[in-house]
Design brief:
The structure is a single chain. By secondary structure, the protein is an alpha/beta fold. The protein has one domain: NAD(P)-binding Rossmann-like Domain (Rossmann fold, 3-Layer(aba) Sandwich), CATH 3.40.50.720. It is built from 10 helices and 7 strands. Helix 1 crosses helix 7 (209-221) and helix 3 runs parallel beside helix 4. It is globular.
């Protein structure tokens, strides 16, 4: 079995869904963990369980990454605890399935801070120490929605397109310096996202959080710049490459309109 090349991981959005599964998958590999999310109760329970089952070091930091200053607060706490992170999993994210004007600007600002600003900030703050040690991994959870414009989820899809492009750009800059940056594009994955996004995903083929995490870890170890998770999601990724962009917009619009405005 190949030795896992990282010792300590920071996982955002670790209290549920993909982030929680990431914590358990990395714990199985003996990786020490720092978990962050808004729910202290959930993080405390998960941390205790991980320590008991896997005998690793687990810390947690309560933070709301929709606040743009939270990334620095997290890193300051890591410094105070003398924790060196060599694997960053930017998993926390949120979105909305809605007519654009049906959501407030405050909601969209929080979404952008969470999906983009905090992700970039954590990367910017933790990358220097990875470069110093000439070893590091960054996994950024994007989305299948990153692959084409998303009518009725405009801000979410655009934010995930940013994550994909940003990740691939950093991969180009740093892969030869020992840092792997991998963007993950899952399709429909049953997590708490559907509830908070008011997403009607009935009938849409999906992938499990477990599959997303396993594919993410494999892609990271293979030093891939991106990974589209799920067969149906992979096949759909060819549509924007084949059809005219206006046609793709109309296809997504018609599909989403039926779900947002039944």
């Amino acid at each position: 079995m190949t030795k896992f090349p990282y010792k300590t991981a920071l996982i955002t959005g670790a209290s549920s869904g993909i982030g929680k599964i990431f914590a358990y998958e990395l714990a199985k590999k003996g990786i020490n963990l720092v978990l962050t999310a808004r729910s202290e109760n959930k993080l405390s329970q998960i941390s205790s369980d991980l320590i008991s089952k896997f005998e690793i070091k687990v810390s947690y930091i309560i933070a709301d990454l929709s606040n743009p200053t939270s990334a620095k607060t997290i890193v300051d706490q890591l410094i105070n605890k003398n924790i060196m992170v060599d694997l960053l999993v930017n998993n926390a994210g949120i979105g909305q399935w809605a007519n654009f004007l049906d959501e407030s600007m405050e909601t969209y600002t929080s979404t952008i801070h969470l999906n983009i600003t905090s992700l970039v900030s954590l990367t910017h703050l933790l990358l220097p120490q990875m470069l110093h040690h000439k070893n590091g991994g960054i996994v950024n959870i994007a989305s299948g929605a990153a692959l084409q414009p998303g009518p009725y989820m405009a801000v979410y899809a655009a934010s995930k397109a940013f994550v994909l492009s940003f990740s691939e750009a950093l991969y180009g800059e740093y892969v030869d310096k020992g840092i792997t940056v991998t963007a993950i594009c899952p399709g429909n994955t049953p997590t708490e996202f559907q509830k908070t996004a008011n997403a009607n995903t009935e009938g849409i083929p999906g992938t499990t959080p477990e599959q997303v995490v396993k594919d993410s870890v494999k892609a990271l170890l293979k030093r891939e710049s991106n990974k589209i998770v799920g067969t149906s999601n992979y096949l759909l990724s060819f549509v924007p490459r084949i059809l005219p962009r206006k046609t793709v917009i109309n296809l997504v619009k018609n599909m989403m309109n039926k779900r947002v405005n039944p």
